[in-house]
Design brief:
mainly alpha; 2 domains
Length: 310
């Protein structure tokens, strides 16, 4: 093989390599949305219990990342975006990643159940299973709808945070789930537009590979239209309010406008500009999600002082 990084297992794994297995950037989204789910819930949680719960939810998210990197090591060696990860770079073996992921999964689920309630621990276990098995092992390599269905795994954390506080599920937690679930396809498909041949080279049936970039642009715009009423409608639940409504109106107007621009762009124009707008749209999608959940936090803080809500 020509992949020297793959053959060289003489490099000793460093602490940072195991941190990288946790997918810290993805984990930060898990932590933030789970924390929002916990803090906007109607039942107050002791700060220490809340901190411990978020810690174990984060570890559960990290376990999912490690198991994903273990199973996807062959893909990661091919894709330019991922070939520097610890396993393809030869710094961590696949066996080490598998053991690390399974250990973290077991610890995080058991400890979350003990720290808060059984339902939240089981919910975290289901989320890890969904991401590692349903998405990574099955959907990712078998259908262009991999991101659509698999996106549920990334949408569960606020529901888990809510479950820590309430012990169950409600309309509000489902609304937070729906925002992330519907946001995921345009977020990842905008990334796929400028990843060029990475997914096709790795044999991943991303929508850009199976149906082409033109169809992907149509789907991105369609999802922005479906997402908007769900995101805006959350303003009229018990966790919403005027601040959230104003935020959602602005962000969704911009998101739809960007989706419309992406829809109308030709591949010739995009290539000439090295997919500059698609990259901007991808990064704006992160701001879009952060803005919605931050607004929910603001509404919760205002309600705490008797100022929020309708």
């Amino acid at each position: 093989m020509s992949d020297i990084g793959y053959l060289d297992h003489s490099k000793e794994a460093q602490f940072g390599d195991f941190v990288a297995l946790l997918k810290p950037r993805v984990m930060s989204l898990v932590v933030f949305t789970a924390m929002v789910g916990l803090l906007v819930a109607p039942n107050p949680v002791h700060p220490f219990v809340g901190f411990v719960a978020i810690l174990f939810i984060a570890l559960g998210g990290g376990a999912s990342g490690a198991l994903n990197m273990w199973y996807d090591a062959d893909i990661d060696r091919v894709m330019r975006r991922t070939k520097g990860r610890p396993i393809p770079a030869g710094r961590v073996t696949e066996g080490e990643a598998l053991g690390f992921g399974l250990a973290l999964a077991g610890i995080s689920c058991v400890m979350l159940a003990l720290a808060s309630n059984l339902f939240s621990g089981l919910f975290l276990a289901f989320t890890i299973f969904f991401y590692a098995v349903v998405y990574t092992m099955w959907l990712k390599r078998s259908t262009p709808q991999n991101i659509v269905i698999g996106g549920a795994a990334g949408a569960f954390p606020p529901m888990i945070g809510w479950a820590v506080a309430t012990g169950g599920i409600s309309l509000e937690s489902v609304a937070m789930f729906a925002i992330i679930f519907l946001w995921t396809p345009p977020h990842f498909w905008s990334l796929a537009l400028f990843m060029k041949d990475d997914y096709s080279n790795a044999g991943v049936p991303m929508l850009t590979v199976t149906h082409g970039r033109r169809a992907t642009r149509k789907q991105i715009f369609a999802y922005t239209l479906i997402l908007a009423p769900v995101a805006i409608g959350t303003a009229f639940t018990s966790i919403g309010g005027p601040v959230y409504l104003a935020t959602a109106l602005v962000l969704n107007a911009l998101f739809i406008k960007g989706g419309w621009t992406i829809l109308r762009r030709t591949e010739e124009t995009a290539q000439e500009e090295t997919y500059r707008f698609e990259k901007r749209y991808f990064y704006f999608s992160l701001l879009y999600l952060f803005g919605h959940f931050l607004a929910l936090l603001v509404e919760a803080a205002l309600r705490h002082f008797g100022l929020g809500g309708w």
